[in-house]
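# nightly structure sweep
# worker-07 picked up a monomer target from the shared queue
# config: single-sequence mode, recycle default, output format = structure tokens
# input follows
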Amino acid sequence: MHIQNSLSRATAIAAGVAAIAALTACSTPPQSTSPPFYPLPPSGQAAPPAATPPAPKPQAIFIRPAPGRTLSGFDGTRNKGMDIAGNLGDPVVAAADGRVVYVGGELRGYGNMVIVQHNDTFLTAYANAKTILVKEKDVVRQGQKIAEIGNSDADRVKLHFEIRKQGVAVDPEPYLNGTLR
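# output follows
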């Protein structure tokens, strides 16, 4: 009798295990509400780099002093700056903060002109002005109206604009669009 009880009990246990196994095989695993687990890389290996957003385009330190189209660009010999179209009296604004170091019309080919020193490296020149609204030693802010477009000592109404780096004329475009600083 004792053997029969042991067999019956063993049979019952085996049947229970089989039933649990069958239920487990047929059922879907419970849905987890926790985030998925991502194992760390093996010790000594670096984790993959995180995606980085693209670098923002650098801001230009100079702004365009007049909104007109470019009539002629820098070539380093005949044109040491750029000529910008405009209407007689249109505003000319300071390309960056600085101090006015020259106002006058003595330089042949430039007509009425303003020169602004921005720091030890950069100067900007604004030539062919109809009217000059600042005087030497004035502190000007970027975007401040400093003159009006004219045709003094020029063949047409325009602004001649130059950027000088360490005293040498450079192409203004890369400085205006932020490519160079």
